């Protein structure tokens, strides 16, 4: 068996790994590299896996850095199956069409910016390519083995990261006999609401594992319901509003779930709550369609509450007109809107109307990357630039910890130890992490593996 690492090797984005045997060639994930424009465009336009010669793609989950270049793969000639869990197929279908729309709009923006004499900007792919890739999805039921050919079987088990996220287990024939390959995708945290913990799967000959937070322990999970209740109560008493920048997939649904619990307990202040993100609204419907795979706590709530994402006073906003109307309200309200780092989307409009009022609250519910508006809010800059306007930051900025969907070093170590105890780990390759993080994590899990874990570089090939 030959492994070639074509993305998320020595970095944390653009997951793509090529597996080749005597009979088969398949990809694990096909994600978009996300970074500076020129570098991203160069990496995402060129495939090193000969798409037309691939037999299959196995998709771990529907985050764009794992699935976002499937339309590009289709555009380059791939026509084979894309195997994944049913929930991942539903979510990825939405995410890929949204990504294609962004690609098309971005190309138009660049043409306007560069002027009529500049070379035409070509989108990475278009909606027709997204529809083509979606047509290749072949969802497979989770927690059971599927024999795809005499030489290939696969099982998807919960990774606990986002809805439908899977650990991919593959049994494949090689010239030296049957080999077992495990690919983690992204592993989630233990004890999070809505999703089951990551599954401990049996040992394997080859493991390809993420290590994003392999050197970091997340802060202790705060009393998220209590923190939300405190902040909303303060805003209501002051006549202010609460703006919550939140990623459309995962984070928005988790926050709405907590607010629903507060409403069920009759503790939620009387404030209108708006989810102002068409993408988040569509994705929340997928959560409703797949409530059967949510965790045990959610199943208990569903006995008495048939919709975890709906309560009195909650409104999902679709149109731009209704979104703009929110900012003319004079009463206290809560606005949950994308993007999570405040760089794109409707949330910037809501922040523009909120940051200067000391009665308002801004809740940051996740990591804020350097040089983003979210990071400037987090650092408490006296002024912030929104739509080319310098605005005073007088609203109170709050940080709620414990909502990360990524397992930290303790979660990853727990999972590795479980895998080692269930049959051992042969060769281990660490991806989806910065090189210094991967190196440190390799030392932490060395005793779980038969050999020293390896940290591949982009384009590097290994015989196993």
TrEMBL record:
Pfam families: Beta-Casp (PF10996), Lactamase_B (PF00753), RMMBL (PF07521)
SMART domains membership: Beta-Casp, Lactamase_B
Ranges of residues in domain Metallo-beta-lactamase: 13-218
Keyword RNA-binding set for record: no
Matches recorded under InterPro entries: Beta_Casp, MBL, Metallo-B-lactamas, RibonucZ/Hydroxyglut_hydro, RMMBL
EC numbers on record: 3.1.-.-
Uppermost EC category: hydrolase
CDD domains: TTHA0252-CPSF-like_MBL-fold (cd16295)
Swiss-Prot/TrEMBL keywords: Hydrolase
Domain of life of the organism encoding this protein: Bacteria
Gene Ontology MF term list: hydrolase activity; RNA endonuclease activity
Span of domain Beta-Casp: 252-377
Protein name, entry field: Ribonuclease
Organism: Stratiformator vulcanicus
